[in-house]
Amino acid sequence: MTWLITGGAGYIGAHVVSQAANSGLKTFVVDDLSTGISTRLKSEIELRKFSLQDTSSLQALFQEHDFEGVVHIAAKKRVGESVERPDYYWQENVVGYQNLLGVMAKHDVKNLVFSSSAAVYGEPNESSDSLISESTMCSPINPYGETKLECERLSEAFSGETGAKVISLRYFNVAGAGRPDLGDQYIFNLIPIVFDALDRGQQPQVFGNDYETIDGTCVRDYVHVQDLAKAHMDAMEHVVTAQPFYLPINIGTGYGASVAQVLAMISEVTGQKIDPIVAPRRQGDPASLVADVSRAAEILNWNSEQGLREIVSSAWDAWQLSHK
Ligand code: WQD
């Protein structure tokens, strides 16, 4: 049977679709192609272009297909933009998801994997060397994180009301590429920002070097997008066989890398000298955000396999393909 992947033409979605195909699982993609790119998908993958705001297209699709489950990845994900346009983010991320859940309930589709984010935690009020577990209090600090938390609440309610089996995967800092043509083409996060600076012959900025961390720069948990895609496979497999439940699960590596360490790895991989400019702290940046990944290991038997070197080198290969 077929799984519906919303946002399947996006950076993360296309990795999920590709891994599903490699493991013999049939997928169908819905994507409004606002940030997704249709050529990321092999020609045999069926793609329908519409927004989840469009309830009648959703209804029609569920009437035509008997979906085994849904992986819901489609969303707007730029934190800065969400601060400027909170209503737009609510409409796109929350109302779109409500539409999807309504149609799933009507067609009795009960297997669901929701793409959530570590942004639900906000700035956890814990010492900077402690890991973030799923029981850490959720307190988002921007509209993007608020939409993800609201979607988690909707997911839990959906499970309670319909008997659905639902996992929310809380992604930490996703980067890298499974294949060069599947890379992240946007310049919103640290690694592509640094590649872009190097391409322009400029030096990257480090936002603050006076944090209480190993070297004063912020620490994040960078997880390879290929490992993340595998976590989706494991979550899909799990929900199918489970009893009704709702569970958020962190997806990270359990290890932190500081901005300085990421820059050192980028320098090593690209062979370019990096002499960063120290800029003031960026508002809303916690010193350290590293996942406790024990639940993913316990429930999904999932562990990350790739480290910072693989993340940076695969991201660099993808960057060179799309920016030359
Ligand atoms: C990483 C680190 C910066 C740029 C964001 C979202 C989060 C999630 C992942 C989707 C930070 C530092 C960055 C630069 C720097 N998104 N930095 N110089 O903020 O950890 O997480 O993406 O779910 O919700 O908030 O990622 O890549 O922006 O920054 O020093 O030019 O790099 O301060 O410590 P972030 P990021």
Automatic annotation (TrEMBL):
<dbReference type="GO" id="GO:0033499">
    <property type="term" value="P:galactose catabolic process via UDP-galactose, Leloir pathway"/>
</dbReference>
<comment type="similarity">
    <text>Belongs to the NAD(P)-dependent epimerase/dehydratase family.</text>
</comment>
<dbReference type="InterPro" id="IPR001509">
    <property type="entry name" value="Epimerase_deHydtase"/>
</dbReference>
<dbReference type="GO" id="GO:0003978">
    <property type="term" value="F:UDP-glucose 4-epimerase activity"/>
</dbReference>
<dbReference type="Pfam" id="PF01370">
    <property type="entry name" value="Epimerase"/>
</dbReference>
<dbReference type="InterPro" id="IPR005886">
    <property type="entry name" value="UDP_G4E"/>
</dbReference>
<dbReference type="InterPro" id="IPR036291">
    <property type="entry name" value="NAD(P)-bd_dom_sf"/>
</dbReference>
<keyword id="KW-0119">Carbohydrate metabolism</keyword>
<keyword id="KW-0520">NAD</keyword>
<keyword id="KW-0413">Isomerase</keyword>
<protein>
    <submittedName>
        <fullName>Unannotated protein</fullName>
    </submittedName>
</protein>
<feature type="domain" description="NAD-dependent epimerase/dehydratase">
    <location>
        <begin position="3"/>
        <end position="244"/>
    </location>
</feature>
